[in-house]
Amino acid sequence: MDPSCFLTGSLKKFPWGGTVTRILAAAILAVEPGAAVHRALRREADQLTIGEKTYDLARTRHVYVIGAGKAGAPMARAAVKILGDHPSAGIVIVKDGYAKYFGDIKGLTLLEAAHPVPDRRGIQATQRIIHLLQETQADDLVICLFSGGGSALLISPPPGISLDDLRSLTSLLLVCGTSINEINNIRKHLDQVKGGNLARLAAPAQVATLILSDVVGDPLDVIASGPTVPDPTTFEEALSTLNRYGILNQVPPAILEHLERGRQGISSETPKPGDPLFENVDNIVIGSNSLAAQAALRQAAAEGFHTLLLTTYLQGEARQAGRMLAAIARQVAQNGQPIPRPACLVIGGETTVTVQSPGKGGRNQELALGAVSELAGLPDIALVTLATDGGDGPTDAAGAVVSGDTLGDALRLGLVPADFLARNDAYNFFAPLGDLLKPGPTQTNVNDLAFLFAF
Fold first, then answer.
1. Any idea which architecture 3-29+290-454 has in CATH?
2. pTM, whole model, 2 decimals?
3. pLDDT tens across 383-407, in order?
4. Strands 306-314 and 141-146, bridge-based pairing
5. Under CATH, to which class is 32-156+191-233+270-287 assigned?
6. Which of 68, 142, 388, 414 is close enough to 150 for a disulfide, judged by CB 3.0 to 4.6 Å?
């Protein structure tokens, strides 16, 4: 990835823009999917090592490569390069517009589908994967490649549930403040491949899954809704989540009926921990938010900053998180705590937005907007927010840049932060200021990062 992609307007105008660009680029490069696959997947003659397990290709009938996610294309390209002449077939589903960066990958088909709200192409592509897995035998190896976005791209609704039902539910969950853990726990009980069911379809073959984590804490059953991972959650929990957020009366009736049938034991549960099915399955995390954050810290130290990893577990309402980070910035500015200037504090995680009005933005932009008033007037202070996949919400921005001058610049243009927060319209607040971060698709996805700088 070219680090200059970050120097598009928002950082270019600042004297410290080049320094910050190198730090952000270091974080993204550390979780470049192809390099992550090369670290986990190695071949010497007929010996293929995946993680800590070695497979004898001379005794393997077929090797299949399947997957889904925003990082699917670079992961697939790296895997095919390592495998050489061995992939028998492969299908990987990627987000709209992502396949064009990679062209043809020998022996493998890249298919595009919609994200974050699924579409018919995702269902059709998943059916092709299911059909491929129907051919597997005990002496086959299925290599799975999953990354953030896989839940929306890999989709196979059970009988009686339509695509419109799932689209309606997904849109509802995305705006009511549910966490990705809660959303994916519901998805696992409305799908025939999620929640360990893909491993069930691949049996009796050996399965090795390489995972690029986009979920706080890297819970394997949540990332891409855990297609090859035992599912500890239940139909009962899925219904409880919908009830807790007060949206049961807005959920499509077919979905409620399916979940209720599962709660009563009429529909089959997802495979659980301890199921012998998973004795032939290995799941390996090859990239995470923590790896990206640590790389940013190393680069910041090389640039002369005092550094601190504040957390990689940031969650909660985005605007409140923004105010909290602004309070920490004020602490650094006034008394040099928790670290003195020049300071770089790195924060990782994934916040949520409870949408009250149909504005334009995403959680990283709303987090930044929440900090604008609190940072006002602080000298040589900046907050930079970044969705590591390059796209924050349904926008072309990955985040935004806030400094002590942002509020004053905004008010001179008639932009009042509270008004835009009320409309969930962070994009249209930062756009006139030239403070949106627009690197374009990074082809990776490991949650969000925020950076507090005191120069």
1. 3-Layer(aba) Sandwich (3.40)
2. 0.89
3. 999 999 999 999 999 999 999 999 9
4. unpaired
5. alpha beta
6. 68
